[in-house]
From TrEMBL:
Pfam families: 4HBT_3, 4HBT_3C
Annotated Acyl-CoA thioesterase-like C-terminal domain residues: 140-270
Domain of life: Bacteria
Domain Acyl-CoA thioesterase-like N-terminal HotDog: 32-113
Protein name in UniProt: Thioesterase family protein
Organism the protein comes from: Microbacterium ulmi
Gene3D superfamilies named in the record: Acyl-CoA thioesterase, double hotdog domain
Length: 276
């Protein structure tokens, strides 16, 4: 049974609660609500590791974070061991090892600092060029993974897909590994430094529009955060430049409601074996 929300708490905060059991050691529960099948979504696993690091490091915001997925992190108890690498005046670095039954499942390496609430005028900034229709013209969908695996994590978001995206879900794969959508938390909470890593990996893989019909497994995910998102919808874009030899990379961009680029991601994923 899910624990109730505390006043002002988001669903992600509730489902990421951790308790410190020793110096540098925290324990919690991998919530089924953020899984694909019984395994934690990669972005949620990264976010959970970042919460453990935030409990130990003296600076609040993950500026750059990378997760390496060693084995599936299953729904159930998790132990997180945090190691401080270095603490400076403006940056703090640490490593979080996420374990189940004594086996390491995910390793997170991160650099923390302080994100600007009101960013300074940039030295250079490209304008948002995402091909994304207005929200009213986009389609609200909660999509599972081809092959029938339930993507619980996608129900945690209100997602409005651009009409040119997720053709596979309509029975007509586009043949182009690109996706764009408007995204916000289903519970109405505003985007923050722990939600953004989940958004980076929660939407369907762009390879599905290449007629890939099974779950694609993330090997490594990196997220860069550049500013605290303004309240409201995130405009999200994902694409791959190369899908070959059983692997793909996927790049993400995340723009807030004011039109600022607040985050970027890149992941390497392994494709399911294709029948000859």
């Amino acid at each position: 049974m899910k624990e109730p929300l505390v006043m002002g708490e988001s669903a992600l905060e509730r489902d990421s609660r951790l308790r410190q059991v020793d110096d540098g050691v925290l324990e919690g529960e991998v919530s089924l609500g953020w899984c694909i099948g019984d395994a934690a979504n990669g972005g949620y696993a990264l976010s959970l590791g970042l919460r453990a690091l935030a409990a130990v490091l003296p600076l609040p915001d993950p500026l750059s974070s990378t997760a390496h997925y060693v084995r599936p992190l299953a729904h159930g108890p998790v132990r997180i061991e945090v190691e401080t690498m270095r603490i400076g005046r403006t940056l703090a670095r640490g490593v979080a090892r996420m374990l189940q039954d004594g086996d390491e499942c995910v390793r997170v390496i991160a650099v923390f600092g302080t994100l600007p609430q009101v960013p300074a005028e940039p030295l250079y900034a490209e304008p948002c060029d995402i091909l994304l229709a207005p929200i009213a013209d986009c389609t609200p969908l909660v999509l599972n993974t081809p092959g029938g695996l339930t993507a619980h994590v996608r129900a945690r978001f209100d997602t409005r897909y651009d009409p040119g995206s997720v053709g596979w879900a309509r029975g007509t794969p586009t043949g182009r590994p690109v996706l764009s959508a408007w995204v916000r938390a289903e519970d109405g909470s505003e985007p923050d430094r722990f939600l953004l890593p989940v958004v980076a990996d929660a939407l369907p893989c762009t390879a599905f529009d290449l007629a890939v019909e099974q779950r694609v497994l993330t090997v490594e995910l990196t997220v860069h955060q550049r500013a605290v998102p303004a309240p409201g919808w995130l405009a999200c874009s994902y694409r791959s430049r190369l899908v070959a030899d059983g692997f793909m990379e996927e790049d993400g961009e995340f723009w807030d409601s004011t039109g600022r680029l607040v985050g970027m991601s890149r992941q390497l994923a392994i494709l399911p074996r294709q029948n000859p």
